[in-house]
Amino acid sequence: ADEPLVLGIETSCDETGVGIVRGHTLLADAIASSVDEHARYGGVVPEVASRAHLEAMVPTIRRALKQAGVSARDLDGIAVTAGPGLAGALLVGVSAAKAYAYALGKPLYGVNHLASHICVDQLEHGALPEPTMALLVSGGHSSLLLAPDITGDVRPLGATIDDAAGEAFDKVARVLGLGFPGGPVIDRYAREGDPAAIAFPRGLTGGRDPLYDFSFSGLKTAVARWVEARRRDGHEVPVADVAASFQEAVVDVLTRKAIRACKDNGVDHLMIGGGVAANSRLRSLALERCEGAGIRLRVPRPGLCTDNGAMVAALGAEMVARGRAASAFDLPADSSLPL
Ligand code: KG4
Ligand code: ZN
Description:
- By secondary structure, the protein is of the alpha/beta class.
- The chain has 2 domains: 5-120 and 308-321, Nucleotidyltransferase, domain 5 (2-Layer Sandwich); 132-301, ATPase, nucleotide binding domain (Nucleotidyltransferase, domain 5), CATH 3.30.420.
- It has helices spanning 35-39, 46-68, 87-104, 113-119, 122-125, 165-175, 182-190, 217-232, 239-264, 280-293, 302-305, 310-321; strands at 5-10, 15-22, 25-33, 77-83, 108-112, 132-137, 142-149, 153-159, 269-273, 296-298.
- The strands form 2 sheets. A 5-stranded mixed sheet has the order 3-2-1-4-5, sandwiched between helices. It has a 5-stranded mixed sheet with strand order 8-7-6-9-10, with helices on both faces.
- The radius of gyration is 20 Å and the shape is globular.
- Residues 113, 117, 138, 274, 307 line the site of zinc ion.
- It catalyses: L-threonylcarbamoyladenylate + adenosine(37) in tRNA = N(6)-L-threonylcarbamoyladenosine(37) in tRNA + AMP + H(+).
């Protein structure tokens, strides 16, 4: 067991996540979510999230250590999400990581949230090939990333120019009156609906449009207009059909562009991560299209796709294994940390 034993802390949004890994082996994944406290506001309220992290931080760390059955003294490092994310929320995790690292005399590793969404797949499918092609789709991001080195060289090929994919799911769910977060509910309704019922627009897929960028704001507006017109005419809204047709428009564009990026860059595998990677239709369509294109698909199980501490620990362990420099104790929480 000379693989690095690392504890990871994630507090970039509304989940207080603490994970412990040894190399590519997941030992603990403790999570406390404040999502229910945000539901009544229809979105994550930063101040509410920060306060919830503060309350959950120490108990969640203790729970993870107990789950893993390891002593904090045996850790080879403490990793933490340094950004991007909500400033106040990040600060709670970064402060906790510094305190534990300092008190225990362990090296501290500040990591990028997006890179850890990719690295988590090592816990499920073993070492990632390099370069890695990743499609990251969450409430805050929709990016195509090419990573020659997951611990330090992750290049954005394209990103959303307006709403993130998860944000579009959340907004459409609100239009349909389905509550927050919208992704899982739309996923459920869509299973009963017809994805070809309504032809919603596919953003940025014209001949002159940027190849790897996304746009979901026009789609969201198209869905809202369609639903409003329907209500105005006094008709019932076919929620399942709207959900299925909207979802199909999103995952059609995501998979098409991701596979295009793999082909253009000579990469024979595709990793999909972030909360939206939990979407069942995205998973099935990506698999179908990857198989057709001779690309190996790697998607972690849904629990590892949404924000968690294990992904931070996974990237921290990779940094320790590669002898990457630890962070200084003045490591800042950076809400817009670039890759
Ligand atoms: O990665 P994540 O947990 O947090 C960040 O945004 O970083 O992603 C949360 C997003 C939310 O927008 C949620 O609606 C979406 O992921 N999501 C889904 C599904 N599960 C979660 N979207 C579509 N289908 C799902 N099954
Ligand atoms: Zn995330």
